[in-house]
Amino acid sequence: MANVTNNRPLSPHLQVYKLIPTMVMSIVHRITGGALYVGTLLVAWWLIAAASGQASYDWANWVLGSLLGKLVLLGYTWALLHHMLGGFRHLMWDLGYGFEKEVSTKLAIANIIGSLCLTVLVWVIGFLIRF
To answer: Where are the transmembrane segments (predicted)?
Structure first.
């Protein structure tokens, strides 16, 4: 009787696949979607604090204005913009455009570059308006 387990093909594993931009953007799109839940809870907390009185509002502003708070808000801004641009990419695919390998790869790279540039732009404008 032959041992059939030794002749069975192995399933592909992550070590077999070459990491490509569209694969990375798919993973990052899912991660940013999850991060948006946490960031939206922070925005809701800030709005509730604003409605709860001056002391609560001052405390929320202090937390979000700290270095750690600003880093979290920077990450939230990037996640929001990155997820939005990824949504536009998916909308384009839903309409039947951009399925060619070269186009989808360029869109994936544009997504990351665009989200980083837009994040910097939003924060620069935010700091300019503040002063």
So the answer is: 27-48, 60-81, 107-129
**Number of structural domains in the chain:** 1
Q: Give, rounded to a whole angstrom, the gap between the first and last alpha carbons of the chain.
A: 82
Model pLDDT for residues 28-46, shown as the tens digit of each residue = 999 999 999 999 999 999 9
pTM for the model stands at 0.83
Residue range of the domain that includes 59: 20-130
Is residue 2 included in any domain, yes or no?
no
**DSSP reduced 3-state for 95:** coil
Amino acid 76: pLDDT: 97
CB atoms within 10 A of CB 36: 17
Q: What angle is formed at CA 11 by the lines to CA 8 and CA 12, rounded to 5 degrees?
A: 140
CA–CA distances in Å: residue 37 to residues 25, 29, 88, 89: 19, 13, 19, 21
Vertex 47 angle, CA 45 and 48, to 5°: 65
User: Is 83 annotated among the ligand-binding residues?
Assistant: yes
Structure tokens at 120: 């910097």
CATH number of the domain where residue 39 is located: 1.20.1300.10
Report yes or no on 62 lying in a domain.
yes
